[in-house]
Write a structure and sequence with these properties.
Rossmann fold, 6-stranded parallel beta sheet, 8 helices
Length: 181
Amino acid sequence: MGNFKEDIARCEAFVFDVDGVMTDGGIIPTADGDFIRRYNAKDGYALAYAIKMGYKVCIITGGRGRTLENRLRMLGIRHFYIDCMDKISALREYLANEGLDPQSVIYMGDDIPDLECMREVGIPVCPSDAAAEVIEASRYVSEFRGGEGAVRDIVEQVLRAHGDWARDSQGVTPSSLAASR
């Protein structure tokens, strides 16, 4: 564990929780047993762009629902564990399957169930409104709250460190994601 900026320049993959990280943590249950969540478009853009640029992204969440799964697929995220109550096992499985060194992985969580995973990786980070224990375990605390740009913040920092952010003024659109599948 060295300098944070040097370490993010060696980042190989991102792992994110959903509720409280990609969202503000609010959920609205629907009559059919699904949940409505509010996502930040800039967070989604950054994730889709990172995937387009070849970065690995995984989601590990206790959240569930068809709309959640649809959102992840819409962004181009292929590796996700939803309704996951054993996050550390999911993380270890993902790292092993992808051949990733945990020291070169970012994990962004916001609450107690994320702590074990955060301790497993080299670059644990969190939104500004994370639980006190998570803030204490983090190497970086975003200035942004969950669902309000924290994901974009860390993704953009990593891609800038690699020289990949806005490279050649390339962007990503839903149609370009569909074409890459």
